[in-house]
Write the structure tokens for this entry.
Amino acid sequence: MSLFNVFEISSSAIAAQSQRLNVVASNIANADSAAGPDGQPYRAKQIVFEAVATANGQGPSRVQVARIAEDQTPFRTIFDPKHPLADENGYVNMPNVSVVEEMVNMLSASRSYQTNVEVMNTAKNLLLKSLTLGQ
Amino acid sequence: MVDGLDRMMQFQAAALSLRSQRQELIAANIANADTPNYKAVDFDFAAALKNASAAQAAPATAPAILYRTPSQSSLDGNSVEMDAERAQFADNTVRHEAAMRFLTAQIKTMLAAITG
């Protein structure tokens, strides 16, 4: 019964999207963290999705998180001589998080999550209807 | 007798099985809407059903998986177009339900014939 595979596929997408939402939350929360555990400013994290075939390499694919990459763009520098982490010229390195990009990422993740929940609901309704077949 | 019943329901059963396979493929497309380089897949339903009903009692072969041609390209190489996929998903859902109703009607017809 291949409709049951819809649950597997959609739930993998839901899990991946919620992990993406987690990464977005981490980025937005740390948008102003000038120093992390290693003394360096926080680097934005980007999630990388990858399609994994459910069977013989062809046909429907699940989604999985391949890795969480660190954004390698340079840090944002601000001029603030009073800041305790300012260098001799008065500049402070701040995280390379783009809050606008993260908000867009968040919206996209939440929409994809909703769509996949709808797909699962539809598959559930179809399966329930097939139980009443012949009645 | 049992063979006749079986043959009568075979067409709708094949249609139902193909519909659920297609539902699975479209669900995979929607699930991978944000995966870079993912290519949306589908199969030719009419050809697959013709193939399945021509096969008769022999087990039908799996339909050939084709890639969709997107109307607009995307930067990350993903060819899923969410609006088109959702439309196809809704369409397939309705047709799946229709196949189930046809099958139910056939079963009811046979039951009426048996019970008299």
Remarks:
- The beta strands of chain A are 45-53, 61-70, 76-79, 91-94.
- Chain A has two helices and four strands.
- The longest strand of chain A covers residues 61-70.
